[in-house]
Amino acid sequence: MYILGIETSCDDTAAAVIEAKGGFSKPSFSVLANASYSQVTIHKKFGGIVPNLASRAHLEKIIPTIKNTFRIAKIKPDNIDLITVTRGPGLLPSLLVGVNFARALAYRFRKPIIGVNHIEGHIYSNWLGRKRASSIRFPALILIVSGGHTELVLMKDYGKYKIIGQTLDDAAGECFDKTARLLGLGFPGGPAIAKLAEQAKRDLQIKLPRPMINTENYNFSFSGLKTAVLYSYKRKNKSAMAYEIQEAIVDVLVSKTLKAMRNFNPKSVMIAGGVAANKKLRKEMTLKIAPYKVPLFVPDFIYTTDNAAMIAAAGYFNYLKNKPNRDSWKKVEANANLRLEL
């Protein structure tokens, strides 16, 4: 089946068309088009996302983005079998643009529509590319790490989740952004710190805390790390500080994931979310998990950041569970605080 995906949860206006088949037993996806308009240049001067500017940009770009997606995919709206759209979590003004436009398309072309959880979309980014969807085994342990979320999730089967750990304050991506701002680096902070860290070596005089790394639970906390940077940066080398910030965040993420692995014995381990693009995190997770002989799945770089292909993939599995009718556009609503259904 051909699926249109629409994603406007934050500051990327994204649309995709994928072909999905195989069902639960042998799922496979072909991404025919995956278009996105980034608002980084709009928000960069503010050092973070400005919600009203984000929603305005979505309004301006959603129609040309979707038209471009259909052009690249060489398919017409009439040939789409299902429309999927991010309904939460995210910034409500941004979510409303995507949800309302998707509902209008569903009504106009008489197509079924499914609202998708953005976090679930990140999880299913691991099913895209390299023909590996059928290689994933359950239960799967997933580290979801982005600007707004840091969670450890045990996925027992399609659509069956248990959150076993989460951040008590700042998310890892948020910590990257805030510490980058303290260092006078650009936005978004993760890529800026990673780039600067590549030019540095460990300075033994700089030692940042690894919050909650030794606790028995699987929760995270990064606000203390940010505070430590605030009080110690002015008398330290910038590149060495960036190096230590990245080391501290990655150490905590990897340590907590390994602890959960040892206790839950998953058959697959995944990383998902924007911070999954961090090369240091990918390298360390690969090295530390290797001795356990459990396959590690990491999304292709193109699917780590917010994108609509992952929303379409997640929508496919939701469609298999509960096939919507052509009047389903009446039921899809945005929810800024949406959580994974457990």
Explain the overall architecture:
This protein is an alpha/beta fold and about 350 residues long. The chain folds into two domains: about 1-125 and about 305-330, ATPase, nucleotide binding domain (Nucleotidyltransferase, domain 5); about 140-300, Nucleotidyltransferase, domain 5 (2-Layer Sandwich), CATH 3.30.420.40. Helices cover about 40% and strands about 20% of the residues. It contains ten helices and ten strands. The protein has helices spanning about 40-45, 50-75, 90-110, 120-125, 170-180, 190-195, 225-230, 240-265, 280-290, 310-320; strands at about 1-5, 10-20, 30-40, 80-90, 115, 140-145, 150-155, 160-165, 270, 295. The protein has a five-stranded mixed sheet, sandwiched between helices. A hairpin with a 4-residue loop joins strand 6 (about 140-145) and strand 7. The longest helix is centred in the C-terminal third of the chain and has 27 residues, at about 240-265. It starts with a strand and ends in a 21-residue tail after the last helix. The mean pLDDT is about 95.
